[in-house]
Amino acid sequence: MSHELTQHQTPEQAELEEKQKLLDGLEAELADRELELATLRGELGAFENEYIQRVVTKYAILDDLNLQIEELLAARSPDDAQRQESATRAREQANESAETSGRADPRRPLEPFTPPKSLKDLYKKLAKKFHPDKADSPEQKARYTEIFKEINRAYEDGDEERMMELERELANSPDEVTGDSVAEQLVRTIRKIAQVRTRIDAIAVVTAELSESEFFQLRARVREAKDSGRDLFAEMAAEVDAEIEAARVRLNELAA
Known about the structure:
It is built from 8 helices and no strands. The chain has one domain. By secondary structure, the chain is mostly helical.
């Protein structure tokens, strides 16, 4: 033992106290890691929404024009297998662009996700109390999972009012810790420690995957351009606009 037994304290109680301190520290670390992951997801979500609205919607227009061109050419050469294949690929590309463009949320402001400290603090407070790994039973874990999903949704939407509402709703939640024996509490605490450590490791994997994603790399390029006084999205949109104009001219020539 790393500490002396206090008066009237059994070895099991001392071990439980030590494990609970360890668990408290791990749960605080877990809340920090969950906050970092939720913030990263919120940042990438806001970035993706801006990219779709400013750039991808233009690609959807371009791909639709290219599809019309390929379909006209395919209709004129029905026996040309290569031309028919080109039309098929153009159709697939147009459908993909339209689908991606439809994911944009026009209600969401075109600005970076920058949650205030008050929102971050509120997230950590709720995460510490209602993280699914704190559950003592399958029923409680299911309940905490749904609560945690709602907490994450509100945070990533930057909805501080909803977060405060959740805090009020959950403030009077009954304490689900029962008066179990010291031995049972010790076992439960040890298992919680293992669960929390597993979740911390899982968050590290997810964060690494997000950091290697195409959107993360594109965001780095956009930020680098911004530091140089350039708007990379505006440059990309201008290039697509030029391609759209050329495609319209080509389509009009074919139609004529």
